[in-house]
Amino acid sequence: MFSKKNSMLLILLILMPIFLFACGNDNTEGIEAKSSDDSIGIRFAHEESQGDVQDLYANKFKELIEEETEGRITVDIYTTGTLGGNDDMFTQLQTGAVDMAITSPGFTGSVIPQTQIMNIPFLFSNNPEVNRKVLDESEALYGTLADKYEEKGLEIFKFWTEGSMYWTGNKEITEPADMKGLKMRGMPTSMIMESYKLMGADPQATDTGEIYTMLQTGGIDGQENPLFFIYNSNFHEVQDYLMDSKHHIYITATVANSEWFSSLAEEDQKLINEIMQEVNDWSFTMQQEEEDKALTEIKKSDLEIIELTEDQRESFKELVAPIRDVYIETGGDGAEEILKIIEQDIQAAEEELK
Ligand code: 6CS
């Protein structure tokens, strides 16, 4: 049928586009490698609304990188809901429809079970400086846990905190008996649901956008969140009590699609990492200021503020202690190691900063 010459021509025609594609894509699969002169538009998504802590963080990054590169690199920010739900945002980050995002372990736990470490109550310190140091430096986070993100196609920049978690309720919650059967809303991940079961509550994984209405209509009795989020979401309008429970801190992570990130010129990768560190350092103070502002405003509302005593906190801590083993069993490979190292790092930082 085909002459030898025609067959060779056919093979060449089939192989040519593959060869050209491979040359043009250097070390990445589907994204063209960029040079440090190229203009870059970063699509940056997060899980909160305009003016919330994640939004301030994303805007600071935008401001600094656009200024530093005189507009060669620009950032478009997508707030929650603009790209669908939080699960959709995570999928878009993995598929490369979004380049960078702030994504919390409260939403990523089912895809990267090891991140559930961030959802263990009473694990972190009451000293914000200790938490800052551990979140900024721990080898458990930037070694083993970062590898787990990498396996899912994600590059981790920083883990950081949005502040202490508080409970709100339609009744006081100061001792375990108060928590019994209470419909407590937490972010939709197994470690949080299990923790509230251990505390005796009836945990609810209500969508973020429905918390206000559910609190108003009695579909849920209480919820946990940092102060800025409680105030900005107007939960003080539909709850009677605010418990300074300090049972946890809200932790989140700034990440990028790995393929996109490695397609950037090395200088740009370095620049993004440096600016991200600067934003992260700034976020620690910004987050505390947002917490103080929210507290000042909440004090003007009808919400009654109750500070739990050390003994009261201890009684919840004892109840929820078995969650450590749940994490080791369900947190996937490396979970036990991550937990061990992070506990050691917290202890070491407590010693150093006391
Ligand atoms: O509770 C939640 O669902 C939300 N809380 C915070 C502080 N950020 C994002 C998340 O959607």
Number of strands: 9
Shape: globular
Bound molecules: ligand 6CS
Low-pLDDT stretches: 15-28
CATH superfamily: Bacterial extracellular solute-binding protein, family 7
Largest sheet: 9 strands, mixed
Structural class: alpha/beta
Portion of residues within helices:
40-55%
For the record, the count of structural domains works out to 1
Would you list the SSEs in sequence order as H and E? Answer: HEHEHEHHHEHEHHEHEEHHEHHH
Enumerate how many helices there are, as a single number: 15
Task: Describe the structure in your own words.
By secondary structure, the protein is α/β, with parallel strands linked by helices. The protein has one domain (38-352): D-Maltodextrin-Binding Protein, domain 2. It is built from 15 helices and 9 strands. It binds ligand 6CS. Ligand 6CS binds at residues 47-48, 104, 162, 187, 208, 225-226, 229, 250.
Concise summary:
This protein is an alpha/beta fold and 354 residues long.
Describe the SSE topology.
Elements: H1 4-24, E1 40-45, H2 53-68, E2 73-78, H3 86-95, E3 100-103, H4 105-108, H5 128-137, H6 139-151, E4 154-169, H7 176-179, E5 184-185, H8 190-198, H9 211-217, E6 222-226, H10 227-232, E7 241-244, E8 249-257, H11 258-263, H12 266-299, E9 304-307, H13 310-320, H14 323-330, H15 335-353
Parallel strand pairs: 1-2, 1-3, 5-6, 7-9
Antiparallel strand pairs: 3-8, 4-6, 4-7, 4-8
Helix pairs in contact: 2-12, 5-15, 6-15
Ligand 6CS binds at residues 47-48, 104, 162, 187, 208, 225-226, 229, 250.
InterPro entries: DctP_fam, TRAP_DctP, TRAP_DctP_sf
Signal peptide: 1-22
GO biological process, one term: transmembrane transport
